[in-house]
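Lab notebook, bench 4. Still working through the backlog of constructs that have no structural model yet. Next entry is a single chain of 153 residues. Request: give me the structure tokens for it.
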Amino acid sequence: MEAGQPAPTFTLPDQDGREVALEDLRGRPVVIYFYPKDDTPGCTTQACGIRDQWAEFEAAGAAVLGISPDTVESHARFAGKYDLPHTLLADPEREALTAYGAWGEKVLYGKTTVGVIRSTFLVDAEGTVAKVWKRVQTKTHADRVLQAIADLT
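Model written out:
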């Protein structure tokens, strides 16, 4: 998946069990970030970075969707534990992960494994991928995404 391509559509359950469809978010920027696992150090840093700058994401009119293969129940615990204001989507069948190229081979501590490739996609109001970040740095993630959203307008 590269910038300039139409964003693959999906419908997945959120942390409350409600279905969320990407198509329903048209008309505003959408940040889609794929992460490996709820309540792990890097994923918590990334999610809490978004939480800590949530007012800026709201002011920009952006929707934020975090997607992992975890369950709805796991997402509910994670969101509750860290008071996460954004939507977490469960993708245990890896449909969205695969469509965005966020599932595959990666090297972790010198060992090749198959799993979630931490990546983020900014989708513009028309449904086109505007920016792609591969192998995201969790500590600076929110800042970089907010800058890209500002550059859209």
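Notes after review: The domain at 11-152 is CATH 3.40.30.10 (Glutaredoxin). The CA atoms of residues 38 and 74 lie 7 Å apart. Flag for follow-up if needed.
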